[in-house]
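User: tokens in, sequence out, please.
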């Protein structure tokens, strides 16, 4: 309801009583708050009503797995309340079963860095709140990747593909990323509306994915499609149904299997398929493990960068004075990149499963319990980041954000993502006076991928000298 009300407000519309009742009932609003909804557009704003829900709903009624809560930043009010009142929160009933929500920075670090007590293994459901992502209800399908492996099985597979983000690879990417970024920015219309997500964020990350895999460039759009499908849960954007989702992923497996055979018999090459096809620890992996590691690498190379590219434009419009300091001092670009990634938090959560009884905060988590660490909340924790909902490039601890995770599962490709964002903004600062939002961005309905599906903007180029 909250996101729907916010969208109505942003579009200057009057809320329909029937819709308000439907959404209000869906989130179990109390009668008094529901009555306030009838006055929406007269006395109360959408954000005021949304904030009231976040601050007045019974704690045991809060279910952070609901995708619609993430369609606006209103979910941050719920996180704030939980950090204050119930930072280790138990939800007894959700579409994904019971689970614990860990919302404070220090508690998230406690779980994220203790891989012995808190497992990422697909044996127990993997790294997402929805077990069906790795174990779809389709016979014979159990998708596995190194991020869903505990030690000692995790490290050898990760090591096989680690060179893709090593110094030699990073040096080889820089010129290519700069060239492609320039081409994409040159193609943008001047002073006319366009969708930044489609024209810039998706296009640049898809091109980079094609490079990382040495994937046929003419088919690169498939990589974005497979990425969206692989993380789709029931009820979220891009979810086509369990059986159709598996069919699409099998099409992905078939395509990559052909490339795998070719690369295993070809000359050594610095691309992810060749690395998986030739390394002693990965060359004989079964099809479901091959598929799982492919999807991990595709998503890892896509979502963080893609949604941070969009978030940076959103932030520029939300905090123009702070971005003026970047215009005045382009040397702040590295701090800007870290701060935007903190503020945005491209992946809202990671999930673990308790391997033993463990205390987190003042709560006892029992062996076998599902534990969800909300990076999005930890990055907004006032005890860690002063005034966290504001962009500040001078934060002393801005690079201590949780967006890349910590411990053995820390994001392998974080330097590649930061490089792409840094080059994009170096080019933007050189070429554009402004990139102005002309409508409220449309956010994904997903409790996992925290991103944007549409962002209409108008760009104004700098006058030629």
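Assistant: Sequence out:
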């Amino acid at each position: 309801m909250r996101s729907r009300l916010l969208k109505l407000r942003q579009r200057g519309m009057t809320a329909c009583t029937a819709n308000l009742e439907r959404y209000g009932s869906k989130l179990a609003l109390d009668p008094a708050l529901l009555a306030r909804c009838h006055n929406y557009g007269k006395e109360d704003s959408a954000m005021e009503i949304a904030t009231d829900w976040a601050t007045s709903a019974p704690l045991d009624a809060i279910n952070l797995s609901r995708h619609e809560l993430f369609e606006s930043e209103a979910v941050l009010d719920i996180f704030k309340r939980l950090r204050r009142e119930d930072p280790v929160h138990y939800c007894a009933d959700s579409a994904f079963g019971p689970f614990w929500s860990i919302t404070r920075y220090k508690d998230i670090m406690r779980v994220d860095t203790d891989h012995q007590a808190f497992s990422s293994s697909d044996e127990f459901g993997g790294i997402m709140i929805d077990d069906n992502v790795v174990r779809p209800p389709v016979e014979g399908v159990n998708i596995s990747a190194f991020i869903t492996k505990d030690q000692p099985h995790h490290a050898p597979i990760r090591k096989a593909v680690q060179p893709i983000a090593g110094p030699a690879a990073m040096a080889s990417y820089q010129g290519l990323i700069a060239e492609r970024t320039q081409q994409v920015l040159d193609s943008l219309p001047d002073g006319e509306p366009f969708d930044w997500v489609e024209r810039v964020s998706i296009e640049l990350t898809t091109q980079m994915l094609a490079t990382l895999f040495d994937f046929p460039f003419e088919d690169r759009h498939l990589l974005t499609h497979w990425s969206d499908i692989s993380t789709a849960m029931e009820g979220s954007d891009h979810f086509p149904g369990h059986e159709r989702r598996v069919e699409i992923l099998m099409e992905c497996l078939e395509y990559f299997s052909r490339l795998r055979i070719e690369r295993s018999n070809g000359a050594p090459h610095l691309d992810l398929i060749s690395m998986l096809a030739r390394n002693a620890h990965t060359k004989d992996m079964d099809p479901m493990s091959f598929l799982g590691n492919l999807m991990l690498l595709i998503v890892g190379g896509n979502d963080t960068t893609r949604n941070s590219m969009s978030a940076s434009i959103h932030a520029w419009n939300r905090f123009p004075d702070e971005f003026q300091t970047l215009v005045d001092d382009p040397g702040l670009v590295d701090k800007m990149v870290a701060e935007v990634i903190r503020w945005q938090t491209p992946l809202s959560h990671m999930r673990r499963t308790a391997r033993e009884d463990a205390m987190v905060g003042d709560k006892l988590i029992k062996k076998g319990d599902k534990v969800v660490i909300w990076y999005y909340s930890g990055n907004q924790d006032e005890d860690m980041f002063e005034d966290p909902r504001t962009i500040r490039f001078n934060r002393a601890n801005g690079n201590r954000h949780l967006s890349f995770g910590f411990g053995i599962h820390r994001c392998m490709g974080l330097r590649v993502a930061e490089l792409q964002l840094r080059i994009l903004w170096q080019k933007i600062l050189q070429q554009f006076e402004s990139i102005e939002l002309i409508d409220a961005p449309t956010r994904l309905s997903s409790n996992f991928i925290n991103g944007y599906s549409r962002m209409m903007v108008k760009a104004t180029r700098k006058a030629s000298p």
